[in-house]
Amino acid sequence: MYEICPHTGSSDRSSISQVEKFHITLNMEKEEKKFVNKAEEDEMEIYGYDLCYWKLVLVTVGVICSGGFLLLLLYWMPMWRVKATCKRTMLKDCEVVLLRTTDEFKIWFCAKVFIMPSLGANPLQNPNPIIHKVSNGHSVHFCETSAEENKNDLKKYLPIRYFTHHSVKYFWNDSAQSFDVVRGLDESTFCSSIHNEHSAGLTKAMYDYRKIFYGVNEIAVKVPSIFKLLIKEVLNPFYIFQLFSVILWIIDEYHYYALAIVIMSVISIVSSLYTVRKQYVMLHDMVAAHSIVRVSVCRGNQEIEEILSTDLVPGDIMLIPSNGTIMPCDAVLLSGTCIVNESMLTGESVPVTKINLPNPSEDPEAMGDEIYSPEAHKRHTLFCGTNVIQTRFYTGELVKALVVRTGFSTAKGQLVRSILYPKPTDFKLYRDASLFLLSLVVVAGIGFLYTVVNSILKEVPARTIIIESLDIITITVPPALPAAMTAGIVYAQKRLKKIGIFCISPQRINICGQLNLVCFDKTGTLTEDGLDLWGIQRVESACFLLPEERACSESLLKSEFVACMATCHSLTKIEGVLSGHPLDLKMFEAIGWILEEATEEETALHNQIMPTVVRPSKQPFPESKQATNQEMELFELSTSYEIGIVRQFPFSSVLQRMCVIARVLGEKRMDAYMKGAPEVIASLCKQETVPVDFESVLEEYTKQGFRVIALAHRKLESKLTWHKVQTINRDAIESNMDFMGLIIMQNKLKQETPAVLEDLHKANIRTVMVTGDNMLTAISVARDCGMILPQDKVIIAEALPPKDGQAARINWHYADTLAKCTSSSPAINSEDIPVKLVHESLEDLQMTKYHFAMNGKSFAVILEHFQDLVPKLVLHGTVFARMAPDQKTQLVEALQNVDYYVGMCGDGANDCGALKRAHGGISLSELEASVASPFTSRTPSISCVPKLIREGRAALITSFCVFKFMALYSIIQYISVTLLYSILSNLGDFQFLFIDLAIILVIVFTMSLNPAWKELVARRPPSGLISGPLLCSVLSQIIICFAFQILGFFWVKQQSWYERWTIKSDACHLLDATNTSSMVHYKNETLDDEHNIKNYENTTLFFISSFQYLIVAIVFSKGKPFRQPCYKNFLFVVSVIVLYVFIFFIMLHPVESIDTFLELVCVPYEWRLRILIIVIVNAIVSVLVENVLLDMILWKVVFNRDKQGEYRLTIPQPPQEAVDHWGVCFLSSLFGCREKTPKAKYMHLAQELLVDPEWPPKPRTTTEAKVPSQENGSYQIITLT
């Protein structure tokens, strides 16, 4: 705190400045760690920095001296970039912020801080024209002088500091002393305040003030220019390394391969640019459609102004046109009713009725004032991107909505943000690939040092030393590796496209090869979209009648049961077509009635919303009697049977019911009809009207997979008038009802569902159901489709939040427990408690005898109060019912937290979050969900899931094969070059070219063509390169190749005809000559071969290494059980045969022109045969080691994996298997692999639960959260009596 006055002395200012700097430095060091988005999914640490000019000068010098490499390094590393050019400072004064995510990825970002002038610091409060406190935390007092009075306008403005990250603006919050997102009216705003304070609209001044903070209301998906995308792609470290390699090769006059790499890189870059830009354009088009519309808003002076939707800010009162519109923002309905299509959010094109938000201060129905929340009050909220089809209103009143969120803060904006900036998916293959490349760099470094030292000792020119030592790096780390790794994924993508699966994230294909758990939505995914009416079961005198197939019989026409079916729904007519929830539609169609809605003119005429009328298509006729024509007309008018729906209480997922008040034409008293979940309806009815066997009948239906809806009726008091009905509390109506019976709906399984789930079950892939439907129905469907086997037990976890001083608790119920009690076992039958079985493989533990089921409410309570139980529950959780979209995402994350590779299959936008978060999300819809989902299936069938996993496994194995092959190619060439460097020789340019182009590129691009194996097997491929079997495979082949090259290199020197090769050497005819003194004669002659390429060692190593590339290609081209055998890969087989024949031909039958081109020398025919023997022995050893030693012995015995990734448990051994068991133990202890703890958390947890006597919970017990004062553990188990 300090004062600034015009007459203050300069020395005082200087001393104040020094003191201030000292305090700032001191405070900065003591400043506690700051966060933005605290306790949210995108929480980040934040640090403040100021630009430091002397650091900037040093960095500039470093960039110039390093030829720009330092600049690239700083571009790749945001943290280094900021720390190298800035100094740490207080957050409130900073010019640059450094952000780091708090998740497991710890990703760094940086952003520049901007300053804008504003009249205030809070957009939701009225700005004070006289401000004495600026937003950066310093309190300033301005001394009033005549000169300052002339600057009053400037003094009114505050400098507001902000930065933008991932399309969201963060403003400095002085009270929190950190940056924060400016919220709309969706947080901390009471419902009463929405009506009393915000319903008048904004004044022009307030609107302008808010516009400064909230900016333009648009979800801007900018399609980057091709140039910008190109620069971003080209600056990838791999492409920079390729550029370095190409420059080096051009200096070394190795033009042809350099040109080939350039062509491959260009093709790869163009392909990548096309894919990325196409995704941006798709997303832009989806968002841009109808995003800018003209809207009418009410200003504070009651004027109506027409503006563009991009100019809306929170607080604006938007008028909803009667013919509908696409919502450009999130808004809460203040007056009138809207019919909205929310397919963008829910995935179902079902019209939803939105009613105005009740005013707690006026509306007796309101349950008291509460904070408005778009999620909690979603039946009053119009969400951005949803389609308002039509509106209903009182005459003279406009349908008004208060804008609460705009831009990226809206529900649609958050979805688009999650697509634009996805959370990275951690996959072991890519992490291991980086480590593997790092190890190759280390090998390259050794070769680099060896080359430099060896060349200096042999007095090689400096230019040659530099080129050859750098060249060894490009040999060891192959620049073609990215293109080679991409090939298999591209081929898999094309195969997926052929079977109707489209992929927008090709890297996810590999990850799909590791999936060991798949979550399925139910409706439209496992089952058919629609529901069919199976029948009805009415109740009379508190007894169930027999089930009836049809509800439209004449005897039931005037019954209250049919009247309830005709009125208790939310159907409406849109352009003459009946629309609404499929369940309501089926129910209404089953009785064959007609629905008529009042026109706008009729509504205006009666000064109120006219009721919707329903009537039978055929009117019931009373007994005939004589009457005049005029009397007959009056009689028909008065006796026509029609029911008017006076008031509707919409269906609430929280209440699990809906209710209507209706009146039969001509009747004085009104009727209340209610339908909903049977248990809820029965609890609201008079107990004497509910049948005694209600629960058993209901259980029987739900067990068979039927969706059951209960109906109830109540005759209202005659004193209830139309006006009283419009304001009556819902609870006053929904009580003391008469139970009328059940409607039984059937949701059929899709034909292919059981077979697909059985295939996944056989492949040891867990299946989980995540649905918004009723739990018992979901359990029944899970049994029908084979997700839960007939003999398995289902444990329902019913979690209750803390209430009235009681801790949160979970009640455990066994869904399948029937009345089996006998005199000898009065409590719980032991058969009902699951038996723990010790399985041979931990993967089998997932198929043990019990499954957990819970609904969304319970899941939320468990996540909040029973964190320790979450892993245990998801380990055996199979049915998750009544799950909200965000809960589906939380479930996927919970499964990933215990190391499952999770797939998600859904068909709606409500699955978007889960589809995006899962390792492999498959959308069965081509609507909005497909933009968020990595995969989209053209056929809406789950048969795409095993196909995708098979292709993923094939692509993953292909990636391993290619990576191993490229690693061996590098090492083989590295060995050859290093051996030749020892005699100051090298491979010739055309030898390099033949190896790199004719052998390597051809093999790489054909060995990736193996299609997927025809069925899913119970073993998964390895997830990473750093695993025992793969490392053994690579290292064993390196040792073999090294041994045979060393053998050839030194054996050739032992031959009697060997000499240091010169242009006059002729070893082919040397054996026939009698004079051997010529060897001495040519020994000291000047060599005509400048680079010493032509020599016997070079020719020997060229032939051996050429065959080695082909040998390891065949050895690594694994087929079954994940890919088709390599002999079915026609192009690969042809390529290998052609290359073998060609190399055999030029080795055994030298052609002078070819030898000259490849710079080969003539060697005796006997030596050629010996090279052939070396090659054949090399091939035999390589094949035996890979296919016998590794696959049959080490893989199955030492690494003890019959099912990849799963370690065996110790199990009792029969006597006849004792010898084998001890052999296994010996080998295991020899290799240090005995009794390893499983790496995956879920397997480790499964082992622990096997010996936990308290797990699974016993029937009719309760798990209660501990009181916070208790220290040990977070919950305790209490058995209820």
Automatic annotation (TrEMBL):
Key words, A-Z: ATP-binding, Endosome, Magnesium, Membrane, Metal-binding, Nucleotide-binding, Phosphoprotein, Translocase, Transmembrane, Transmembrane helix
Record-annotated Cation-transporting P-type ATPase N-terminal domain positions: 190-249
InterPro entries: ATPase_P-typ_cation-transptr_N, ATPase_P-typ_cyto_dom_N, ATPase_P-typ_P_site, ATPase_P-typ_TM_dom_sf, ATPase_P-typ_transduc_dom_A_sf, ATPase_P-type_domA, HAD-like_sf, HAD_sf
UniProt-annotated location(s): Early endosome membrane; Late endosome membrane; Recycling endosome membrane
Transmembrane feature ranges: 53-77, 234-251, 257-276, 433-452, 472-492, 956-984, 990-1009, 1030-1052, 1099-1117, 1129-1151, 1171-1194
Alphabetized GO MF terms: ABC-type putrescine transporter activity; ATP binding; ATP hydrolysis activity; ATPase-coupled monoatomic cation transmembrane transporter activity; metal ion binding; P-type ion transporter activity
Coiled-coil features, chain-numbered ranges: none
GO (cellular component) term, any one: recycling endosome membrane
Any one biological process term the GO annotation gives: intracellular calcium ion homeostasis
A Pfam family per the record: Cation_ATPase_N
E.C. numbers: 7.6.2.16
Main location: membrane
Top-rank EC class of the record's enzyme: translocase
Catalytic activity field: putrescine(out) + ATP + H2O = putrescine(in) + ADP + phosphate + H(+)
Topology in the lipid bilayer: Multi-pass membrane protein
PROSITE patterns found in the cross-reference section: ATPASE_E1_E2 (PS00154)
Domain P5B-type ATPase N-terminal: 40-173
Domain P-type ATPase A: 294-419
Superkingdom of source: Eukaryota
N-terminal signal peptide: none
Summary of the function given for this chain in its UniProt record: ATP-driven pump involved in endocytosis-dependent polyamine transport. Uses ATP as an energy source to transfer polyamine precursor putrescine from the endosomal compartment to the cytosol.
The family this protein is said to belong to: Belongs to the cation transport ATPase (P-type) (TC 3.A.3) family. Type V subfamily.
Name of the molecule in the record: Polyamine-transporting ATPase 13A3
Organism (species): Apteryx owenii
